[in-house]
Amino acid sequence: MPKKKIKIEEFQFKDPRNQQELIFKIVPIDSLEVVEHQRKPSNYHVNHLISSIERVGFIVPLVVTLKNGKYLILDGQHRFLAAQKLGLLELPVIIVPQRLANLMMNFNIEKELNIREKSYVASNIYRQYLRENPTILETEPVLTDSIEHAYYMTLGIGYEKEEKLRGGMLESIMKKM
Fold it and tell me: Per-residue pLDDT averaged across 14-21, rounded?
C-alpha cells in the first residue's frame, strides 16, 4: 500500500537561544515582498543563485515577517529574485515576529555595505519607525538597536539631497559628535 503524503500547513517552533516563537511555512511567491529599506540587489548574485537552485534546489528558506497581509522579506531578497526568474510558485519561509524585523536588518548583509548604503538603510529604517510612531525619540532602545550609528540617518538625508556627497570625509567628524 503506497504511503499517503501529509501536507503540513505550517510548523511552529522556538529559536534555541531566546525561545522566540517562529513559524516555518510554504507560501505563494506572489504573497512575498522585499522590505523597502533593503539594499539594491546584485544581478551577478541573482544569476549565481539561479544556477545553484537549478543544481541543488531551493533549500534555504527566506526569513520574513507578516505585515498588512504580506510577507516582508528580511533575509533572502536575492533568493526570492532568483526564484521569480525561475518561475517558482511557492517558497519556504521562516516567519519571525514583527518586533524583530528592523533589528535583523543590520545582520542581513553578505558583504560590508559602503557608507552610502548604510546611510540609505538607516534613514529608511528611521522613517519606518516614525510612520509607525511619530513621537518616537531618537534615544529609544528599539531605534538605537536597529541602526548601527545614529549619524547614518543624517548622512542618509544628505545623500538624498546631494548624491555625490562625500560621506566618508564627514564620517570621522560625525563619529566624534
Answer: 92
